[in-house]
């Protein structure tokens, strides 16, 4: 059985890391599997939103230290995706992290590479690399202060101590906080809310939010205008007003 499972259900794709015996640690097979799954998600016009989860009680403990000790640290990255096949991956479709247990080190950085986070109360988030004289090198050190108040991000980076899901939710890292065992249902419900909207508009809006964060106003206006101009040329742009006038649900085509 593959260590990364990819399943589709209607407009939704689910990517599941399946190495529970190794706390879903990332080895070369996991990295390549996640990248391949994202490739499928991005290429399939029928799929609009993805969810990434981990099998068992741990979302992911990060890099497989046995692989690193064996001199195979490079195998934990892919050329396009970086660590875990995802940390540096450029993509268009929304990705939700469904976290029902600890997400630590590289596991936390996988979560931070996603767009939205649904977590249970038994989840925790941390970058403990400093405890081993390492540096969180898969995006955690600059993505955490984008998601959290800078002093909280600094606390996590310098102490290496994790924060629990309730604290992460209070600070805005977690979008929805649920009871253990309810994460996938909540993530799917959130995905359905996104899928109710025009997919091209969702992707364009996502891109403007991400690219516009921290940009000067001139740049932000430019990328907003470009996004709007692209949507104006789509079939769905015609469908939205038409469905409103005809008082019916829109039938989005994604084109």
Briefly, what is this?
With 255 residues, the protein is of the alpha/beta class. The chain is built from 10 helices and 11 strands.
Describe what you observe in this structure.
The structure is a single chain. The protein is an alpha/beta fold and 255 residues long. It has ten helices and eleven strands. The strands form three sheets. The protein has a six-stranded mixed beta sheet, with helices on both faces. It has a three-stranded mixed beta sheet with strand order 7-9-10. Helix 3 packs across helix 4 and helix 4 packs antiparallel against helix 5 (150-159). The longest helix has 16 residues, at 28-43. It is globular, with a radius of gyration of 19 Å.
CA-atom Rg in angstroms: 19 Å
- How many strands, what sense, and barrel or not for the largest sheet? 6 strands, mixed
Strand element count:
11
CATH architectural type of the largest domain:
Alpha-Beta Complex
What is the H-and-E element order? Answer: EEHEHEEEEHEEHHEHEHHHH
- Identify the strand order in the major beta sheet: 1-2-3-6-8-11
Structural category is: alpha/beta
Report the mean per-residue pLDDT as an integer: 95
Please tell me what the overall shape is: globular
* Whole-number count of domains: 2
Distance between the termini: 36 Å
What is the highest CATH level, the class of the largest domain? Alpha Beta
Topology of helices and strands:
Elements: E1 4-9, E2 12-17, H1 28-43, E3 49-54, H2 65-69, E4 77-78, E5 82-83, E6 95-99, E7 102-104, H3 106-112, E8 116-120, E9 124-126, H4 140-147, H5 150-159, E10 163-164, H6 165-171, E11 176-178, H7 183-195, H8 199-212, H9 217-232, H10 235-245
Parallel strand pairs: 2-3, 3-6, 6-8, 7-9, 8-11
Antiparallel strand pairs: 1-2, 4-5, 9-10
Helix pairs in contact: 3-4, 4-5, 8-9
